[in-house]
Write a structure and sequence with these properties.
With about 55 residues, this protein is mainly beta. It has one domain. The chain has strands at about 10-15, 20, 30, 35-40, 40-45. The protein binds iron/sulfur cluster. Iron/sulfur cluster binds near residues 9, 11 and 22.
Length: about 55
């Protein structure tokens, strides 16, 4: 396990034990057969990206 993971990023809004919402940028529109929804991108907590910024206590 790395300490550079979404779970430790200040932009991550943890949803459950595996998934978080990345709130680094505004929510996005997604369109499917049921219509349009507005959502933040979902990330697995063990992922990371170049926008990682460590949470501070
Ligand atoms: S590491 Fe990147 S993808 Fe993960 S929560 Fe932070 S900004 Fe979002």
């Amino acid at each position: 396990m790395s300490d550079t993971e979404c779970r430790y990023c200040r932009h991550c809004n943890v949803q459950d034990t595996e998934i978080g919402q990345c709130r680094r940028y505004p929510p996005e529109n997604f369109e499917d057969d049921e219509g349009v929804s507005i959502e933040w991108p979902l990330v697995k907590l063990e992922m990371w990206c170049g926008e990682f910024s460590r949470k501070v206590n």
